[in-house]
């Protein structure tokens, strides 16, 4: 039993890292622009489909590199055309917009690539366990963990050591003052949105290695991402990361005892955090 | 404010299925209306689309053959969603009360099929369930007006369980989708295990739409079973099989199940095409009359893709309406339902061996089941030839006798 629990804790960390990747993208956009991006799962799906389409031309690695950038470009365009119009209004406006956008993306992918799942193949050396005892540590999962860790590290470096990151962080605290100081807030929001969507695209490319590639692929991943943000604390990227990892582990451990509750346990955690510590584990008090 | 908005967003997600669009085909006066209440979005969208394609072909053929009782047929299509019972029932009521359809067809999801069946019974509308498998539809909750094309889950498990028990052993671990379909499949296999004095090492119920099965697979592996039985559907099956292959479990244990679908196999990479399963219809049936024409017709209207069991379900359901009405020489539901008792599908509709028929007493079609193994497409062969049929099982040999189904048919006076 102890071994089974440990296996599931490690496994939960792997899944949690994936939730965290999605949640970080959501959190970036929410923190700076106040947009609750319900279409985040749709962008994830686009990432997967673009990778599937590009593989015959660029190979697995080429598609892995290029697809998230293409998704980010689509995100930047959508921000400029649609989402920008709603800044400054009640957040429910942008919520409704992205809610509709999620449907449009889902039906769009269904129209272009069909409703049926598509077979996405990863290199055979990645699709195998690294040892027979720790069989759940597959090459692909380790690769995914490394990539997620690299992406998270890259994000923290950007936010802490670049001018863009400094402005994003400052804007998160007080966008008006940042604007008064001469920063072009429209461009800042646009680039920040693109960065968040890049993470969704990357999550999509990684997800299709393990999951079926179909238009609703993002639907089941979007709620854990929202929960990760709430559990970790709104406004805190480290909190989001911790939230993702925690719900992944909780879900994995619950599967040992009560598999049918493996999803429900995430909601229970969210409810508990909202009751006991409404700002989330690492969120700042009074911020939201 | 933002946290509240985020919570509101979560609540909005719950309302998402209600906002799905509906599709309405062109109408004409004095036509016979058939309502199709099936998923066009969500997990079962691909299956729903294929049932729709089959139904559309049948409507075209029926209309070319003087319609039903001399009247042209029009198909009204509603998106039931893949898992929202309230929406599916609401759409069924809309089709019955506002559009005044003569017949109703639906649903793929077992729970939705049962809910729609209960509604159609209250309204006294002739109803065909094309692809919802849970036993209760023609079992404990059977209705005089409700007929089913696809197999019961018990028929599926009975058709393959002997092969699994004889070939792979009697210690099984189940990973089962947590709704009516999965539950009744597992009950069927448990009954087979009990008869064979086998052992159930464990069973995980997973919510419909589960993405990650790694924890369940880790648990299954720890019990060292003879076979891991996957009782999943649609994208859940794809996710689980892909992850099982990456864990190398297919090399350590036998992985099998009951129902498998071509739509699922087409979404799997070649290395994940393995295991023993039941197909309810297969497009490659050399020597069976009319199958080649059907395959060619579907290829023409479906971007060159072959028909699946789902396509045949939609096709057979639509033709059943015509056969029932013309045998009864009436559109009255009771007369049609009486005419359906023992009705044999003609070869151009049956498209399988052994003359499938609607059984008297529970309204369940007794088709042929195709037991076999998933396979990667043969080199140089058709890329959609992803299943090898090894055994044909007659429906009435796999089904429980009517008196054991729990069906107590009550006819209106």
Q: What's the total number of strands of chain A? A: 0
CATH architecture descriptor name of the largest domain in chain B: 3-Layer(aba) Sandwich
State the shape of chain B.
Answer: globular
Cα(first) to Cα(last) distance of chain B is 60 Å
**Would you tell me the structural class of the helices and strands of chain A?**
mainly alpha
Radius of gyration of chain B using CA atoms only: 21 Å
The number of domains of chain A is 1
Task: Kindly state the number of beta strands of chain B.
Answer: 14
**What do we call the CATH topology of the largest domain in chain B?**
Rossmann fold
Low-confidence region ranges of chain A: none
Proportion in β-strands of chain B: 15-25%
Radius of gyration of chain A: 19 Å
Structure description:
- The complex is a heterodimer of chains A (288) and B (413).
- Chain A has 288 residues and is mainly alpha-helical.
- Chain A has one domain (2-217).
- Chain A is built from 9 helices and no strands.
- Chain A has helices at 2-33, 40-81, 91-113, 139-161, 163-180, 185-207, 219-232, 237-257, 264-276.
- Chain A is globular.
- Chain B is globular, with a radius of gyration of 21 Å.
- Chain B has helices at 2-15, 45-64, 85-98, 110-123, 153-168, 180-195, 214-222, 234-246, 249-252, 262-266, 291-301, 309-328, 333-340, 347-350, 395-398, 402-405, and strands at 32-38, 73-79, 103-105, 126-129, 146-148, 171-177, 199-206, 227-231, 254-257, 276-279, 357-358, 365-366, 368-374, 387-394.
- The relative contact order of chain B is 0.13.
- Chain B has 16 helices and 14 strands.
- With 413 residues, chain B is α/β, with parallel strands linked by helices.
- Chain B folds into 2 domains: 9-151 and 299-366, Rossmann fold; 154-279, Rossmann fold (3-Layer(aba) Sandwich), CATH 3.40.50.
- Helices cover 43% and strands 17% of the residues of chain B.
- In chain B, strands 2-1-3-4-5 form a 5-stranded parallel β-sheet, sandwiched between helices. In chain B, strands 7-6-8-9 form a 4-stranded parallel β-sheet, sandwiched between helices.
- Chains A and B meet through helix 1, helix 3, helix 7 and helix 8 of A and helix 1, helix 2, strand 7, helix 7 and helix 8 of B.
């Amino acid at each position: 039993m102890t071994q089974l629990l440990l296996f599931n804790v490690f496994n939960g960390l792997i899944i949690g890292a994936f939730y965290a990747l999605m949640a970080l993208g959501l959190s970036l956009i929410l923190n700076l622009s106040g947009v609750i991006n319900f279409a985040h799962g749709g962008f994830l799906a686009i990432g997967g489909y673009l990778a599937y389409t590009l593989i015959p031309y660029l190979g697995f690695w080429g598609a892995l590199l290029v697809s998230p950038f293409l998704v980010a470009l689509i995100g930047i365009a959508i921000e400029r055309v649609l989402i920008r119009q709603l800044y400054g209004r009640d957040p429910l406006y942008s919520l409704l917009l992205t809610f509709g956008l999620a449907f449009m993306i889902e039906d769009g992918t269904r129209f272009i690539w069909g409703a049926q799942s598509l077979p996405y193949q990863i290199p055979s050396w990645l699709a195998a366990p690294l040892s027979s005892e720790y069989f759940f540590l597959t090459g692909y999962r380790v690769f995914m963990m490394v990539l997620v860790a690299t992406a998270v590290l890259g994000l923290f470096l950007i936010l802490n050591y670049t001018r863009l990151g400094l402005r994003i962080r400052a804007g998160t605290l007080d966008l008006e003052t940042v604007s008064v100081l001469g920063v072009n807030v429209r461009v800042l929001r646009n680039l920040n949105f693109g960065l968040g969507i890049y993470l969704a695209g990357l999550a999509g490319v990684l997800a299709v290695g393990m999951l079926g590639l179909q238009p609703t692929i993002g639907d089941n991943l979007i709620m854990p991402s929202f929960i990760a943000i709430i559990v970790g604390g709104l406004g805190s990227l480290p909190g989001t990361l911790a939230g993702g990892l925690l719900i992944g582990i909780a879900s994995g451990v619950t599967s040992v005892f009560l598999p049918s509750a493996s999803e429900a346990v995430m909601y229970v955690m969210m409810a508990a955090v909202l009751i006991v510590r409404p700002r989330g584990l690492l969120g700042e008090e009074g911020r939201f | 404010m933002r946290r509240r908005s985020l919570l509101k967003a979560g609540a909005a997600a719950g309302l998402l299925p209600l906002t799905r669009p509906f599709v309405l085909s062109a109408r004409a006066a004095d036509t016979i209306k058939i309502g199709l209440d099936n998923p066009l979005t969500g997990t079962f969208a691909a299956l729903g689309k294929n049932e729709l394609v089959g139904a559309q072909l049948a409507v075209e053929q029926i209309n070319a053959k003087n319609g039903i009782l001399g009247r042209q047929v029009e198909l009204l299509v509603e998106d039931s969603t893949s898992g929202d019972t309230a929406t599916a029932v609401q759409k069924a009521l809309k089709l019955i009360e506002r559009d005044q359809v003569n017949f109703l067809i639906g649903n793929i999801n077992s729970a939705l099929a049962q809910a729609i069946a209960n509604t159609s019974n209250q309204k006294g509308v002739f109803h065909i369930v094309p692809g919802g498998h849970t036993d209760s539809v023609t079992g404990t909750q059977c209705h005089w007006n409700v007929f089913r094309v696809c197999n019961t889950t018990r028929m599926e498990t009975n058709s393959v369980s002997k092969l699994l028990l004889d070939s792979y052993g009697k210690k099984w671990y189940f990973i089962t989708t947590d709704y009516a379909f999965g539950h009744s499949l597992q009950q069927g296999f448990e009954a087979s295990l009990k008869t064979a004095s086998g052992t159930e090492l464990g069973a995980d119920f997973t919510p419909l739409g589960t993405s990650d099965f790694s924890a369940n697979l880790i648990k299954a592996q720890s019990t060292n079973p003879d076979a891991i039985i996957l009782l999943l559907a649609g994208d859940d099956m794809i996710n689980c099989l892909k992850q099982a292959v990456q864990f190398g479990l297919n090399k350590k244990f036998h992985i099998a199940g009951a129902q498998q679908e071509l739509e699922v196999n087409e979404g799997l990479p070649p290395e994940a095409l393995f295991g023993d399963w039941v197909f309810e219809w297969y497009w490659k049936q050399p020597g069976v009359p009319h199958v080649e024409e059907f395959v060619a017709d579907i290829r023409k209207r479906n971007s060159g893709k072959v028909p699946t069991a789902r396509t045949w379900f939609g096709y057979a359901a639509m033709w059943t309406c015509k056969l029932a009405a013309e045998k009864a020489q009436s559109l009255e539901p009771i007369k049609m339902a009486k005419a359906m008792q023992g009705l044999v599908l003609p070869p151009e509709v049956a498209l399988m061996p052994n003359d499938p028929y609607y059984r008297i007493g529970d309204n369940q079609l007794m088709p042929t089941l195709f037991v076999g193994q998933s396979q990667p497409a043969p080199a140089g062969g058709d890329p959609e030839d992803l299943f090898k049929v090894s055994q044909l099982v007659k429906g009435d040999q796999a089904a429980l006798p009517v008196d054991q189904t729990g069906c107590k048919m009550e006819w209106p006076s």
